[in-house]
Amino acid sequence: MSNALPSSGPAAPAPVANPALFLRRWLANPLQMGSIIPSSPALCRRIVAAIRRAPEEAVLELGAGTGVIGRALLDAGLPPARLIVVEIVPEMAAHLRQVLPGALVIEGDARRLPDLLARSWHGRIGSVVCGIPLVLLPLAEQRRFLDAIEAVAPGRGFLHYSYCATSPLPWRKHGLAARREAWTPRNFPPASVWRYTPMR
């Protein structure tokens, strides 16, 4: 297994962040959005640095928002055909199709991930990035997300960015190992990147 993203990539296109769209969706349903503004470039860089995948594997992002993390992955050299994003909000999914050309954008509920994602991709996901605010959900709903991730990326775990000072998930209750991979104060609010993996 290797970190397959090179340090440089093609020239970046126009910025994809759409703060007005992001804020509208936050006002409509705060539980679907972890913040009122898109992730900062500093946080995106830390997520990109934590990605692990083999060349034939894809990166799966859950709760892709306006696409700033997906764009950072592409700019770092991830082939568009190896980027899969899942977004539950139709308006934001339509935006993602425009700003992440070549990526597979799936509109739907990530808790139904095994049904949403083509079987040909099951077991071929190198890294999962979760931007859904799992900390706001009851334990049973958190478990549904974790089971969905495990079904398509068995044994791989996932990266989860959060604005909590400590782990946003009760990892022992879920049978997970937890490690904070990165932290950046250059985000509003300051954010951490956590790696959770199933304990064997």
What would you note in describing this structure?
The chain has 200 residues and is of the alpha/beta class. The protein has a single domain (19-198), classed as Rossmann fold. It is 28% helix and 21% strand. It contains six helices and seven strands, in the order ααβαβαβαβαβββ. A seven-stranded mixed sheet has the order 3-2-1-4-5-7-6. It is globular. The model is unreliable at 6-15 and 30-36 (pLDDT under 50).
Could you list some keywords that capture this structure?
Rossmann fold, seven-stranded mixed beta sheet, globular, alpha/beta, about 30% helix, about 200 residues
Task: Outline the fold blueprint.
Elements: H1 19-28, H2 41-50, E1 58-62, H3 68-75, E2 83-87, H4 90-99, E3 104-107, H5 113-116, E4 125-130, H6 139-152, E5 158-162, E6 176-184, E7 191-198
Parallel strand pairs: 1-2, 1-4, 2-3, 4-5
Antiparallel strand pairs: 5-7, 6-7
Helix pairs in contact: 2-3
The strand order across the widest sheet is 3-2-1-4-5-7-6
Tally of DSSP helical segments: 6
| Strand content range | 15-25%
CATH homologous superfamily heading: Vaccinia Virus protein VP39
Taking all Cα atoms into account, the compactness measure Rg is 15 Å
In a nutshell, what does this entry contain?
By secondary structure, the protein is α/β, with parallel strands linked by helices. The chain has one domain (19-198): 3-Layer(aba) Sandwich (Rossmann fold).
